C-alpha cells in the first residue's frame, strides 16, 4: 500500500513532464517547419518584389523605387525577347519528342514482360543519376569529334535526351494502377486495336502523359548547364541571364522569371484540381 | 498482321526509338568523353588521340584542391539540407492533414523559378547592404565590415537552397508511407517518444534518406553556378574548372579527363554508400 502510494506521484510526474515535452516538441517542430518554408519561399518573394523595382544602376540588387515600367515593357532589353522565344521553341519541341519516346517506353515497361527489362530500367535511371556537367561534357565531345555545328539542333537533341527518363518515370508512376481488363473488354466487344487505343487506352494514360509532358517542358525551360555546354552561340533564356549577370541585371529578368513562376504554379494547381475532380467522380 | 503473328516483338518496338535515342545521345557520348580525355594537341592544330594519360595526371595534381572543395561543399550542403528537410518532411507527413498537397507544392515552388534567377535572388538577400548582413552586424555575429556575399558560407547556402527540394520530396514520400500504428505500438510497449523515433520512424525512413542524399549530393558536387555567382575565385569548384576548360580555354582533352574523373569518383562514392546503407539495414533487421 505504501509502496503504491509512493509510486503514484512519481508516475504522474513522468506523465506531466512527458506531456509537456510532447507539447514543446510539437510546437518546436511546427515553428521549425514554418521557418523552413519561409527559407524556401523568401527568394521567390524577392524575385517577384524586385520585378517592380526601378534599379538605381545596371544591377537590380538594391531596392530603389516601385515602378510598373518593367511589366509594361517586359522585353525592353536587347536580346531578351529572342532568348525567351528560343527557350519556348526548344521546350515545346523537346517536350513533345521526349513525351512521345518516353510514353512508348513506359507502356512497354508497364504492360509487357520481356527480356532486357533490368538493363532498360538501368538505362532510364542513369541519366537522372549523372551530374549535368558530365552529361553536357560528354555530349559536347561527341559533337566536337564529328565537327557537328553547335546550335539549335544540338540544344534540342540534348533536351530530348535528358527529358526522356523523367517522362518515363512520371508516366510509369501514373500507369501503375492501370487496369488491363478494360482493354480486353473493349477487344472482346470487337473494337479494333486502333479504336481500343483511341477510346480506352489513351484516355486512361492521358493524365500521366500530360504530367510527363509538363515536367519535360519545365525542365527544358530551366536547364542551364547542359544547354550552356552544347549551345554554341545560341542563347536560351537561362543563358541570357548568365551572360547578363556579368555586366548588368535588368529588372526585366525578374519579370520573365515571375511570369514563368506564375504559369508553372497555375498549371500545377490546375493539375491538382483535375485530379481531385477525377477521383471525386470515380 | 505481322504483329498479330509476333506479339512478343511489340515491347521491343515500343522501346526501340527511345532507347536508341538514349544510346546514341547518352551512352555513346560517354565513350567519346573517354576518347577525348586521352587526346593531345591544341585548338588550332587539332586534337589527336595519343593515349595522353598526362591529362589524368594533371587532373589529380593541378586540380586536386577543386575536387576536394567540391566534395566538401556538396557534403556540407547535403548534410544541412537533410537537417532542414527531415523535420519539414516529418511535419508535412504527420501533421499536414488535408493541406499536405498544398504544402508539398510550397516545397517544390523554388523549382518554378529559373535556377539562375533564384540564385541571383540570394545575391540580393546576402548583399552587403542587405537585411541579413545588417541583422548579423547588429547582433555582432559578424564584424562591422563582415560580409556574407563572396564567402564559402554564401556558396554552401546557395547550393543547399537550390537542391533542398530534392532532399525533402523523397523524405516526405518515405515518411508518409509509414504505418503510424507501428509508432503507436512502440509507445504502447513503453518506448519513449525519442526511442520510438530512433528505433521505428528513422529506420523506416531510410529509403527516403538514401534517395534524398543521393539526389542532393550528385548534382551538388558538379554545380558551378553558386560558386560563380555567390563566391570568389577562392570558392571555385570542379564544375567551374570543367566549364571554363571547355568554353574559355578550349582545352577539351583536359576538360574531358576532369569530367571522367568526376563521374568515376561519384560512381565509387555511390557504390560505397549503397553498401554502407545496405549493411546497416541488414544488421538492424538481424538485431
Q: Quick recap of the structure?
A:
Chain A is 79% helix and 0% strand. With 282 residues, chain A is an all-alpha fold.
Counting DSSP H or I runs of 4 or more residues, the number of helices of chain A is 11
Strand content of chain B: under 5%
Helix vs. strand class of chain A: mainly alpha
Q: For the residues shown, what is the average pLDDT of chain A?
A: 86
Helix content class of chain A: over 70%
* Overall average pLDDT of chain B: 89
| Oligomerization status of the protein chains | heterodimer
Strand order, biggest sheet of chain B? 1-2
What is the CATH class of the largest domain in chain A?
A: Mainly Alpha
CATH topology of chain B: MetI-like fold
The major sheet of chain A is characterized as: none
Largest interface: A-B, 82 and 79 residues
Q: Main sheet of chain B, how many strands, which sense, barrel?
A: 2 strands, antiparallel
Give me the CATH architecture of the largest domain in chain A, please: Orthogonal Bundle
Distance between the termini of chain B: 59 Å
What is the helix/strand order of chain A?
HHHHHHHHHHH
Helix content of chain B: over 70%
**CATH H level of chain B: which superfamily?**
MetI-like
DSSP helical segment count of chain B: 14
Helix/strand/pairing category of chain B: mainly alpha
What does this structure look like?
- The complex is a heterodimer of chains A (282) and B (287).
- Chain A folds into two domains: 2-41; 79-249, MetI-like fold (Orthogonal Bundle).
- Chain A is built from eleven helices and no strands.
- Chain A has helices spanning 2-50, 69-72, 80-111, 117-129, 132-145, 152-175, 180-188, 193-222, 225-230, 237-247, 252-281.
- Mean pLDDT of chain A is 86; it is low at 1-11.
- Helix content of chain B is 75%, strand content 3%.
- Chain B has a single domain (63-286), classed as MetI-like (MetI-like fold).
- The model of chain B has no long low-confidence stretch (mean pLDDT 89).
- Chain B is built from 14 helices and two strands.
- Classes of the chains: A mainly alpha (282), B mainly alpha (287).
Amino acid at each position: 500500500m505504501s509502496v503504491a502510494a509512493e509510486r503514484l506521484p512519481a508516475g504522474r510526474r513522468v506523465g506531466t513532464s512527458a506531456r509537456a515535452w510532447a507539447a514543446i516538441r510539437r510546437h518546436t517542430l511546427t515553428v521549425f517547419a514554418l521557418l523552413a518554408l519561409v527559407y524556401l519561399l523568401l527568394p521567390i518573394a524577392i524575385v517577384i518584389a524586385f520585378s517592380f523595382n526601378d534599379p538605381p544602376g545596371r544591377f537590380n540588387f538594391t531596392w530603389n523605387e516601385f515602378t510598373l515600367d518593367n511589366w509594361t515593357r517586359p522585353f525592353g532589353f536587347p536580346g531578351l525577347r529572342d532568348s525567351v522565344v528560343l527557350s519556348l521553341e526548344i521546350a515545346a519541341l523537346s517536350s513533345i519528342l521526349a513525351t512521345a519516346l518516353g510514353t512508348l517506353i513506359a507502356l512497354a515497361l508497364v504492360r509487357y514482360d520481356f527480356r532486357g527489362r533490368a538493363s532498360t530500367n538501368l538505362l532510364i535511371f542513369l541519366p537522372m543519376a549523372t551530374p549535368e556537367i558530365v552529361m553536357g561534357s560528354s555530349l559536347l565531345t561527341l559533337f566536337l569529334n564529328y565537327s557537328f555545328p553547335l546550335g539549335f539542333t544540338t540544344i534540342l537533341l540534348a533536351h530530348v535526351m535528358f527529358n526522356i527518363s523523367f517522362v518515363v518515370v512520371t508516366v510509369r508512376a501514373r500507369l501503375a494502377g492501370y487496369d488491363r481488363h478494360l482493354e480486353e473488354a473493349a477487344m472482346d466487344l470487337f473494337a479494333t486495336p486502333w479504336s481500343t487505343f483511341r477510346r480506352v487506352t489513351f484516355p486512361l494514360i492521358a493524365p500521366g502523359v500530360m504530367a510527363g509532358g509538363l515536367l519535360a517542358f519545365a525542365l527544358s525551360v530551366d536547364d542551364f548547364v547542359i544547354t550552356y555546354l552544347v549551345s554554341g552561340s545560341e542563347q536560351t533564356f537561362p543563358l541570357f541571364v548568365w551572360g547578363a549577370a556579368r555586366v548588368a541585371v535588368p529588372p526585366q529578368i525578374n519579370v520573365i522569371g515571375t511570369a514563368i513562376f506564375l504559369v508553372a504554379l497555375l498549371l500545377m494547381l490546375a493539375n491538382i484540381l483535375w485530379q481531385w475532380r477525377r477521383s471525386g467522380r470515380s | 498482321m505481322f504483329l498479330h503473328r509476333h506479339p512478343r516483338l511489340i515491347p521491343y518496338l515500343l522501346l526501340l526509338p527511345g532507347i536508341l535515342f538514349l544510346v546514341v545521345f547518352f551512352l555513346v557520348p560517354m565513350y567519346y568523353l573517354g576518347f577525348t580525355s586521352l587526346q593531345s594537341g591544341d585548338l588550332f592544330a587539332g586534337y589527336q588521340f595519343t593515349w595522353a594519360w598526362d591529362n589524368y595526371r594533371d587532373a589529380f595534381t593541378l586540380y586536386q584542391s577543386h575536387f576536394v572543395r567540391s566534395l566538401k561543399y556538396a557534403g556540407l550542403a547535403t548534410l544541412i539540407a537533410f537537417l532542414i528537410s527531415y523535420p519539414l518532411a516529418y511535419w508535412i507527413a504527420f501533421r499536414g492533414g488535408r493541406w499536405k498537397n498544398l504544402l508539398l507544392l510550397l516545397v517544390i515552388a523554388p523549382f518554378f523559378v529559373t535556377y539562375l534567377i533564384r540564385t541571383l535572388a540570394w545575391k540580393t538577400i546576402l548583399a552587403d547592404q542587405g537585411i541579413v548582413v545588417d541583422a548579423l552586424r547588429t547582433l555582432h555575429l559578424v564584424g562591422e565590415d563582415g560580409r556574407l556575399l563572396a564567402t564559402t558560407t554564401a556558396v554552401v547556402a546557395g547550393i543547399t537552397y537550390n537542391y533542398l527540394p530534392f532532399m525533402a520530396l523523397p523524405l516526405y514520400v518515405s515518411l508518409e508511407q509509414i504505418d503510424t500504428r507501428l509508432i503507436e505500438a512502440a509507445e504502447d510497449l513503453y518506448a519513449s517518444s525519442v526511442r520510438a523515433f530512433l528505433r521505428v520512424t528513422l529506420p523506416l525512413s531510410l529509403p527516403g534518406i538514401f534517395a534524398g542524399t543521393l539526389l542532393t549530393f550528385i548534382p551538388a558536387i558538379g554545380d558551378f553556378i553558386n560558386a560563380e555567382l555567390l563566391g570568389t575565385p577562392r570558392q571555385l569548384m570542379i564544375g567551374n574548372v570543367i566549364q571554363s576548360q571547355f568554353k574559355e580555354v578550349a582545352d577539351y582533352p583536359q576538360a574531358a579527363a576532369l569530367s571522367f574523373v568526376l563521374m568515376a569518383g561519384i560512381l565509387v562514392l555511390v557504390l560505397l554508400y549503397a553498401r554502407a546503407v545496405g549493411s546497416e539495414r541488414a544488421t538492424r533487421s538481424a538485431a
